[in-house]
Description:
alpha+beta, globular, 3-stranded antiparallel beta sheet, 40% helix, 5 helices, 4-stranded antiparallel beta sheet, 25% strand
Amino acid sequence: MHIAQFYREVLGVTDESILELLMENSKLIVFEKGQHLIHADEVATELYFLMEGLFRGFFLDAKGREVTDCFGVAPGTPALSCAELLAPSSITIEAMERTAVLALPAYALYPYLHNNLNLMRIYNQMLWVSLKGHWENKMAMVQYSAMERYQWFL
């Protein structure tokens, strides 16, 4: 899918000036299985939107074991490691298979975010989608047996 088409159809961008800003600053990045998109405690300098593939977010528990916090499967899913731009990540995000993302430098958006209602709407939608998916994942992890979680994941 072409990047402009992705922004229009998947992320719902209709404002041509915003589309132009996004297009000027976007790039496609492919992560191989096991590569980290974002590391815990690092400042995420880019926003990632899933184009194809699969990623998971995880953190380490008190004993150093990985605890899966979320998954990204659907095109357009933002790989958000925290709710605030340019803040340290609370989780690590890892590609679970070959994964293509659309990368957008946070510094390119940040100056416009609070002054442009269309861009703010897109950012709020990104946060909402991420939060909704996070809670769906959390409920499945807590309420389902291992087999039910596997079937839900598939």
